[in-house]
Amino acid sequence: PKRDLPSHARTAVIAMTIAQRLVECGRLDAAARLRAYAGDVLVLRGLPSALELCRVFKSLRRGTDFDCDASETAFEERERLCRAFERDDGVARLFRGIFDEAGMDGTSTYWDRPRLRVQQSGSGVDDVSNSKLFGTGKYSSTLPPHRDTWASNTMQQLNWWMPLDAIDEGRTMCFFPDLFDRPVPNTSRGWDFEELRSKRREGLPYPQLPELDRDAIDRDKGMAELLSPSRARPLLVDPGDVVIFSGAHLHSSVVNTTGKTRYSCEIRSVDAGDLREGAGAPNVDGEACRVPLHWFSNVDTNEKLGPL
What we know:
The chain is of the alpha+beta class. It has helices at residues 7-14, 30-37, 48-61, 75-86, 89-101, 149-152, 193-202, 214-218, 221-226, 272-277; strands spanning 22-24, 41-44, 109-111, 115-119, 158-163, 173-175, 233-234, 242-246, 251-253, 262-271, 297-298. Strands 1, 2, 3, 4, 5, 8, 10 and 11 form an 8-stranded mixed β-sheet that branches. A 3-stranded antiparallel β-sheet has the order 7-6-9, with no helix packed on it. Helix 2 links the parallel strand 1 and strand 2.
């Protein structure tokens, strides 16, 4: 269901220009979160824990080489590296360090789990219509345009993204800033997380996440133009930089044809105070039937987030 901001939060958001630019940020305090909800893409430069995470990743990757066409590598090799990274206790501690260095309050901050993306050249775009692929959706590498909030329905969700090695315009992620506050045809109305879980248990295909409604977009030339690659804005930052943006941003992976692999990681957070007060990004087109707050656990206690 769509949820409007209360008047005080809505005024704060509307008063800001949705500039869709990369904004230097020292701490992710309440004012910075409001900027992110309004569409700014924030960056914290050279965090010590993020730099150390890059070094830890290189150690985990030692002996594996993915700088070849995706057709030359078995999926299981990529899956093995993702599992090792995401289950490593040291990785978890460093993500907590990143949150601490960003000034996050562990009592009110909830997060999901770290994810590693290994995007090889020539891998094409993931078929997100079939959750049986890509490790039941856990190890995606090249995602098509989407808003995370089409699935989470949580307008306070912030995405934390960082490269673990050098990136360039041909192997990174990108935003569609013209569409942050504009409805985009999508399939969220018919998508149900509980149905996804059920189909996974049965070994049956189901969309991994809500997608663009391609039929509706094909009938709207203006929308098709706004979704063209020429309107996307690639993200360029250095290893050790952490980018924070609203899950309501329309974003995707840049299709990698560079001959080199992109290594990046991410995690998502929700501030319970913002959730309680209704301060968050605008919901312009999300219509999923659930709000799965239980995806997020408290940074300090690991207690699941529930309705407030």
